[in-house]
Protein: Acetylornithine deacetylase/succinyl-diaminopimelate desuccinylase-like protein
Organism: Rhizobium halophytocola
Amino acid sequence: MSVETYLEAHFDAALDDLKAYAAIPSVSTDPAFIDGIDKASLFLAERLTRAGFDNVERLETGGHPAVYGEILSDPALPTILVYGHYDVQPPDPLEKWLTPPFEPTLRDDRLYARGASDDKGPLLIPVLVAEAYLKTEGRLPVNLKLLVEGEEESGSPHFEATLEAYRAKFDCDLVVSADGAMWRADRPSMTVASRGNVALEVTVTGASKDLHSGRHGGSAPNPIAALAALIASLHGPDGRVTVDGFHDGTLPPDPKILAAIGAARFDAAAYYRDIGIADAPIVDGDSLLVRQWLEPTLEFNGISGGYQGRGTKTVIPASASVKITCRLVAGQKPRAVIDAIERHLTARLPTGFSIAFDSDGPGSEAFAIDPDLPALGIAEDILGELLGEKPLRVAMGATVPIGSAFSRVLGRPAIFFSFATSDEDYHAPNEFFRLSSFRTGMKAWARLLKRLGA
Amino acid sequence: MSVETYLEAHFDAALDDLKAYAAIPSVSTDPAFIDGIDKASLFLAERLTRAGFDNVERLETGGHPAVYGEILSDPALPTILVYGHYDVQPPDPLEKWLTPPFEPTLRDDRLYARGASDDKGPLLIPVLVAEAYLKTEGRLPVNLKLLVEGEEESGSPHFEATLEAYRAKFDCDLVVSADGAMWRADRPSMTVASRGNVALEVTVTGASKDLHSGRHGGSAPNPIAALAALIASLHGPDGRVTVDGFHDGTLPPDPKILAAIGAARFDAAAYYRDIGIADAPIVDGDSLLVRQWLEPTLEFNGISGGYQGRGTKTVIPASASVKITCRLVAGQKPRAVIDAIERHLTARLPTGFSIAFDSDGPGSEAFAIDPDLPALGIAEDILGELLGEKPLRVAMGATVPIGSAFSRVLGRPAIFFSFATSDEDYHAPNEFFRLSSFRTGMKAWARLLKRLGA
Ligand SMILES: [Zn+2]
Ligand SMILES: [Zn+2]
């Protein structure tokens, strides 16, 4: 039986594996889910062992453990290090899920569950493919190492130190990331660049406690007003970041990606319609993609302060805060970006307030793959065979922080070979993973390992 | 036994009554507390009956019931209608309470509980005083009517209609409000004017669902950014409201109150130190009081949108909202103020967003008492005797919406005779009521009824 036939024949069991895995609430950003982190890492370690991986272990990282396993076939063959993560985004707002986030449910040939698409489904694929090779051919066409972290959705705070600490263990010729996502459901794509990321929470405080807004209104400092003015100072009328020093080090966009953007013939109006917006703020598709792929951003992810219940409470809150993440392009340094924002906000803080900053992890730099890397061509050929169309080379707005970490620490290139699609709501309610992608992904990984070994 | 001696002798029982009353969670703004509303209105009706009130009933209002009772002594005596409310502010943030909000606790000669100061303690005083008159003298020196509403903290949405509906029942010569508050703990005061109030919640929506801020950042509309810019557009650099039409109808401040402000020798630096702010945004005490008492305000009471948990979630939220209340001065119409704000914000809404408004009740106009009203002089004399110092005439930033309603519907003047003090955290955690105020209040109400009847 061929590997691909074996995978077809065992698809139902594979789907059961994914359901069991996605049922575990392994949210890494919230300590309330520490149990789910433990269970998911254990589940994965056991599944690797059952698939035939050797030296399976949960690696100490200083934070949530990473899961590691390897199948070393022959020192003469190339060694591939597969990357993924077992942690997931928080599931809230819970009330918007049609079925509970941790009760995986099939609807319309899709599996709905938090983490199904990011990254539990895509990561399970190479595990199942390795098992299929062992069951059918008795060996793998490459040496395979698997490294699955548990803090990706928290900004991978211990990832680079973990790479350093286990550098010898992770030695390889190429990294293949099972995390990431195809750009569009209707067009195959290969991600060749991604923006970096850095996170910052800003809290503005006025009085030392909440005050009655009737008695104190007009005299006591209102931190919601101060925070709003600070937020409004961060972008210009064209939506671009106005922070001094924010753009330091940025380079002009890669002409090859600009060419790919032209080839994509992106329809801005359709994009806005898709996300439910009638009146397009950006009308030109090329400009829109440049903004999404190639320009840095400063986005507000959450804001809170004061009374949050129903109706009215006449209070001036003591403080208000906003969560910010920035997407970085080549040349921007995460720490320098944070510093620039902190300087900008501190300089504009009105009298009567204090300001505090909390940066969530070290952030990550932008990342780009060498366009002539042979593995990139191989991966593109396979996608072309299976999906009937040569993939577009795209940049992704979202970061996969590991991109730059592998090249910096291990000195090895990384390609992205994920079968998630970016419309699968993986950071929103009702995340799903297409079963068709699960099937195609297994075929594709089977071919990828074969050809990388050849 | 004199009435005052009787009240002294029964102080412990009075305190037990207050504890039992304040233990009932009668939050009117949140439907989750509907049981507490029911219990508190029932408790009050029973206590009135026990005190000797006649025709006690819970009046249908279209919302939470109002509680009514009367003691009609003699048609030749003046009739006093006492106003108060049995509903309380929401208790959150719960974690900031030293003892639970609905477990009344004595500390340092104060009773700590949500509602102890606003308005359960002050309202219980005239009930206890009426009972004391009946027990000692067998009759009251006036005809007394008591009207206690259950929606004051919700903006009294049905109050004016209730006044209209029961106009004959509420017929009186004078209204005395047991709600309101003394300005300072160290200086007796009489409130002769108060600002009005109006509430509005503003929600800005971008995409139809939450989006990944990595993928969509830079292209999708971010409602937190749009809302912040709208908020920042509502005030000028001096902190005053810039909305066109907001100030329509306002009159110059009453010179008598300006004179009282001068007499108060208000220390702005001490005020800011008190509320925990080192660097005073307004340095002149007179200007500060003018802002607090005599100018309209637009304050933000709560803001929310996007991810509210710990750590980071890379999301562009679908919507963000802010809760606004405005304090109004004489001449401003609540509906016109809301309309002006809605026009201002709608005109400034950027492309790609929609905006929705939700106004919480009809609001209330500002209110001022005739400075020559005899009852005002009587009340001032009594405070002077009991507190050793002639009271200041003050305006209050906070509204007591009933002020203007009584004069408009019943054509009768209202004075404020509350023994709450404005430092008693009545819209914040750890609300308390001074036992000394409870004692003094009973003496004062005993004298007030006697002299109004003379
Ligand atoms: Zn991921
Ligand atoms: Zn009150």
